[in-house]
Amino acid sequence: MSSVPRIAIFGLLGSGNLGNHGSFDAMLRYLRAAQPHADITCVCADPQEMERQYGLRSFAITWYDAHATGGSRFPSFVLKAFGKIADVVRTFRWVRTFDVVIVPGMGVLEATLPIRPWGVPYALFLVSFWGRLTGTKVALVSVGANRMRQPVTRWFIVSAAKLAFYRSYRDDASRTAMQGMGVDTSRDGVFPDLAFAVPSVRQATGRTGTVGVGVMAYAGTHLDRRQADQIYTSYVDKLVSFVRWLIDNGDRVQLFTGDPADEATASLIETEIRQSRPHLADRVVREHALSFGELMRQMSAVDVVVASRYHNVLAGLRLAKPTISISYADKNDVLMESMGMAEYCQPIRAIDVSRLIEQFRVLAAADDRLHSMLREKNEQNMSLLDQQNTALSAILFTAQGRADVAANAGLIQGD
Question: Could you tell me the CA-to-CA distances from 121 to 84, 241, 316, 330 in Å, in that order?
Answer without folding.
Answer: 12, 38, 29, 20
